[in-house]
Amino acid sequence: MNLTTDAPIQIVAFCCRYCAYAAADLAGVLRLTYPPDIRIVQIPCTGRLDTLEVLHALEFGADAVMVAGCLEGDCHFQRGNIEARTRVERIKEILSQIGLEAARVEMFNMSSAMGKQFAEAAQEFAERIASLGPSPLRDSTYEIKAEFEM
Amino acid sequence: MIVAEQKSLEEIKNLIADMEKVLVVGCGTCVTVCFAGGDKEAGILASSLRMSTKLDGSTKEVTHITVQRQCEWEYIDPIADQINDADVVLSIGCGIGVQAIAERYPETVVVPGLNTTFLGLPTEQGVWEERCAACGECILGITGGICPIARCAKQLLNGPCGGSQNGMCEINPDTPCAWQLIYDKLKSQDRLHLIMDVQPPKNWSSSRDGGPRKITREDLRLAVEDSE
Fold first, then answer.
1. DSSP three-state, residue B44
2. Do the chains contact at B51 and A99, CB–CB below 8 Å?
3. What predicted TM-score, i.e. pTM, was given to this entire model?
4. Is residue A30 part of a domain?
5. A147 near B CB under 8 A
């Protein structure tokens, strides 16, 4: 994989199936615009959020990771989004230890009807990351040397 | 189970500073259960080290692998190729696992990624507490299943000291007094007579105080074949 320093900001968004993904889908149906470089990954619940998958996203090209789940109290699986929030805080600590900005990962809550809010959150997060700048892990070339198994 | 905690990333980076190829070895037993050195933690540590060393300007090649248990030769023998391929093995097993790898692969540089702390159990999800001091002479039969060697700060054998207040230990207000727990337990089971005999000073020779310990079971040893 080769990333040049002038490629646009890349964001991976882990969205829960029941709310955030539906909200993103609604944003699409409503033809709302938000930055195109937000790559959405559907997970059944943000409680499924895997710390290692977030780190890999950042390691292998993402400038930031968005985690979007149901409104607190309304999680389809009771408290998956509460667990995710704690996990996101832990990931922020890990990023600080690594030397990356903790702001590169963030948790959002929304309902499936909030298509407009998804687009706004995506826009606002993308602008925030753009002002932080591309990930310092980016280089003129970044060869993945390590073999890994997921 | 053995309970351990991961060292800080800073300390780990110092341990592998001069090395290029790092193999993080996880363990699927105790340290998985205390979320310190399992497969997921090995992956997270490997990814963290790759990113961190790249940001430092000294990119390292870090891979990871996890075995069922690092404390048995049969489980660490199959990863010989990966170990021999690395400049350093960063073991996130307990201290036993680190030493097993070091002993089985004497030419390999092996460093620890964890601080092994105690023998204990998860009293609730996310909380682990010490329960056993491995003293070699278990008296749980007369203390109602509560160990005064592991849980009493002074390791007393004949009841609480004068510092026990409201059932809590004087060294830490969050630590229950072990002897209060023993008394309450035996009283509830109507077995207080068990602690009425005065216990003599403990013979510590069966504990670590007597030197490194070894158990041999001749009945379990493999018969040595007569050589030709």
1. helix
2. yes
3. 0.92
4. yes
5. yes
